[in-house]
Amino acid sequence: MAAIAPHTPADPADAEELPRATGKQLRTVLLLLLPGLLWLAIFFVVPIFTLAGTSTQTPSGSGIPGEFVQTFHLANYWDAFSDYKAHFARSFLYSFLATVLCLAIGYPLAYLIAFRAGRARNLLLVLVVAPFFCSFVLRTLAWRQILADDGWVVSSLKWLHLIPQDATVTASAVAVVAGITYNYLPFMVLPLYSSLERIDPRLIEAGGDLYGNGLTVLRRVTFPLSMPGVVAGTLLTFIPASGDYVNASLLGNTRTTMIGNVVESRFFRIVDYPTAAALSFILMAIILVLVVFYVRRAGTEELV
Q1: 266-275, pLDDT tens digit by residue?
Q2: Are the C-beta atoms of 186 and 164 separated by less than 8 Å?
Q3: pLDDT one-digit tens code per residue, 150-167
Q4: Half-sphere exposure of 254 toward its Cβ, with a 13 Å CA cutoff?
Q5: Per-domain residue ranges for the chain?
Q6: Quick one: which H or E segment has residue 101?
Q7: Which terminus of the chain has a lower count of CB atoms within 10 Å, N or C?
């Protein structure tokens, strides 16, 4: 048996050099993180605490609009939720429908770009992000023209007898969901493409060699391997869509109002800051719980 060499202590000079090198690296990392940490502190942490303080205020009683005092009135949260629970439900319903539609439309498109586009891949990616070069409001207003009663979409649906002749699509829940789906579709396509593009094509070929047809390979191989992109895309679509108010304001009516419209109205029209702040916190809390539950159920806990 070979003799085991006795353990020799490290050189004292090396032992002194290691802490200095580690400290230098730590200072470098902190300096690189400092701008981002300052940005988060100024534009995220401070507003969050300010919003939390505002949510527990009550009117001062002076009769001056917008003047409130800090009374730590936690009942604001229950009052806000009980008064607008229907708007919360409507917001999450529209967001869920839009997310499902984005996934149904975006996955085939991302698959086409990743595996079938060839030289047109870059052009298709540019077309996906091209809507971002136009204002969000202008893109939403364009849907009012697309879904107008005398537009080609509604006219075609009436000609095919898919909707009644006196039906109106604008100022409806259908128009709101369509607008949300269109505006947030790129947020679904890009993560899906990134995830699909990293899949080794040999794995898909191996599925075909094992006598799997196209649908079976997609269901058993491609889709599971692209789950990180599915999770990221659905989160990037659902979270901002839940608080959206532009689509409901421009494409909906009084019966399609989302919680974002209520928050906007309470902040800028009614000047009821505590209720608006409480609604914002409730919305953030519900989204956080849903996201944690969804990510854990999807089997990607490392995203939390």
Answers
A1: 999 988 999 9
A2: no
A3: 888 888 988 988 888 888
A4: 0
A5: 75-201+227-303
A6: helix 85-111
A7: N
Report how far Cα 21 is from the mean position of its chain's Cα atoms.
41
- Residue 268's CB is within 10 A of a number of other CB atoms, namely 9
28: amino acid identity, one letter: T
**pLDDT of res. 166:** 83
Find the helix packing angle between 75-83 and 273-298, rounded to 10°.
80
- Specify the amino acid at residue 290: L
- Residues 249 and 140: their CA atoms lie apart, in Å, by 10
Cα 112 from Cα 107, distance rounded (Å): 8
Q: Residues, the chain, total?
A: 304
Domain 75-201+227-303: which CATH number of 1.10.260.40, 3.30.190.20, 1.10.3720.10, 3.40.190.10: 1.10.3720.10
Give the pair of three-digit tokens for residue 263. 């928050």
Strand, helix or coil for residue 52: helix
Single-letter residue type at 206:
A
Tokens 């999450």, residue located: 92
Cα gap 291→242, rounded to integer Å: 12
- Which residue bears the tokens 């006598």? 211
Rounded CA gap, 47 and 8, in Å? Answer: 56
Name the token pair of 91.
Answer: 């917001």
CA geometry: angle at 279 spanning 41 and 281, to 5°?
35
